[in-house]
Design brief:
The structure holds two protein chains of two kinds.
Chain A: H1 12-29, H2 38-65, H3 77-89, H4 91-124, H5 126-141, H6 148-155, H7 159-183, H8 187-196, H9 200-211, H10 213-237, H11 247-256, H12 260-292
Helix pairs in contact in A: 3-12, 4-5, 4-7, 4-10, 4-11, 5-7, 6-7, 7-10, 8-9, 10-11, 10-12, 11-12
Chain B: H1 3-12, E1 26-35, E2 46-54, E3 58-62, H2 69-76, E4 84-88, E5 94-97, H3 109-119, H4 124-137, H5 153-166, E6 171-175, H6 183-200, E7 203-207, H7 211-217, E8 220-224, E9 231-236, H8 248-266
Parallel strand pairs in B: 3-7, 3-8, 5-6, 6-7
Antiparallel strand pairs in B: 1-2, 1-4, 8-9
Helix pairs in contact in B: 3-4, 3-5, 4-5, 7-8
Classes of the chains: A mainly alpha, B alpha/beta.
Amino acid sequence: MATTTEPPGRSPADDGDLAELEAGLDALESFSTPRISLLTRLRRSVLPPAVAVLLFLGIWQLVWALHVKADWLLPSPAETWREAAGSWSQWDVGTAVFNSVYRGLSGFAVAMLIGTPIGLTVWRFRVVRTSLGPILSGLQNLPSVAWVPIGILWFGISPATIYMVVLVGAVPSIAIGVVSGLDQVPPLYLQVGRNLGARGFSAARYILLSAAAPGYLAGLKQGWAFAWRSLMAAELIAVAPQLGPGLGQLLEQGRNNTDAGQSFTAILLIFLAGIGINALIFAPLERRILRDRGLTGRRA
Amino acid sequence: MTTPDIAGVAEAIPHHTTPHAAESADAVRLTGVGKTFGRTDDVPVLQGVDLRIAAGEFVCVIGASGCGKSTLLTIIAGLEPASAGEVAVPAGRASLMFQDSALFPWLTAGRNVELALRLRGLPRAQRRTEAEELLALVRLHGAYDKRVHQLSGGMRQRVALARALAQGNRVLLMDEPFAALDAITRDALHGELTRIWRETGIAVLFVTHNVREAVRLGQRVILLSSRPGRIAREWSVDIPQPRRIEDTAVAELAREITADLHREISRHGDDH
């Protein structure tokens, strides 16, 4: 290698070599996530749960065949299916599903509108965090069914009672999600943001909120789960004709009619509605957030 | 291509202090700068640092770990106040780059660059073209839509460099930006940085613990002592560019500087 005792001119060849070297390095070291065909994706995402469901049904069938419980207490899968299919044609099951999902989602939306600013306030102000933080986690641990009697005393058996229980169930999870999402933002991002000129509102808008999105979404998911189970608990207890049918009421009806098939059907519907909302709303959001950030958890 | 734009923007940035005719050539001016964390009677991290960086100059700072190199940069960047002395950046403001590219993973490479342009107040219509030009400047044509996790470490640092240039500042502060890269990539990026520094004419303050890297890149090399961080010695590097890290002249000066660096570090062993 030549030593540079005298200034060698900046040869274009040197620059070209560098460009080629770099292009080579880039090609070797970067990779793009391969697109997977729809068929492969379906096989990967649908097949395993389908097998799991079949296994579950098989075990159910087996337990039924062994006559552990009387037929009217533990109906066979086929009997439950007939019951579900039969009752579906009655108008009130459709209404029950619609009512419950509507109550769940609207209650969740309101919980989001309340929980998010609470979370932001708790995160932002130390005094609020030390005073309100423990109460929030306490409320999150408290089963929200506990509020049903108070709700009935205050509002009677009315939608207000049901919504109150849903809110008490979902708001703490959402607020805690906001706090933990923001807590996990790497300080380096904030430093870079400040250097880029993001301060106050623009820092929150362009950096903080985006950076906190994964934690926030986790909080929302948990908030939905809490909203849904709180709703079921409230509906199960608060039964009145003026409320109209809901899935919780359907459960209770099954008990009153000593019809285990109906209760099983209701459980199945509650289960399906819960995972349905998750699959339609939260899973796509989560997939997108994680894929953009390269956090698919898959090994490269 | 991109150079006139950047220069134009820098002129538009209002100066914090009205520079005197003789001083206006300074990009950064530190006078007696000190920094103490915690109690005031603790050993200062930085003490009496006088440093001038001329417009368009490339200065490297070396020193052992904990000598306050990074603190010096955060003070110049305005992220941390100095405890003593005066800090002036007559050229406007300074852009900052770290060992971690700190690219925002929720944005594409191009959008990362655009965010800097947007926060600078550039109208939407210009952002896309400007961002693409800056990516081309760091030889990443076509990486606009790439996600951060799809880029190699070297590519990330180049996007981070494009983002720093997008801020339109005439001073670039670099805190060990290549320390986490493999030797081949680092070598290539030395060439890139030298080229971009020449094309844009910005002043660079480059912090590293790699003496050869400092000699390979800088016009001046400054040795910072530890606890307290002071300017211990300074060399001007008269080896013409383009240099290579394996050049004999680079190695010779690096050996001399390393000897001083070791002496500086050994001094602390006597304290105990």
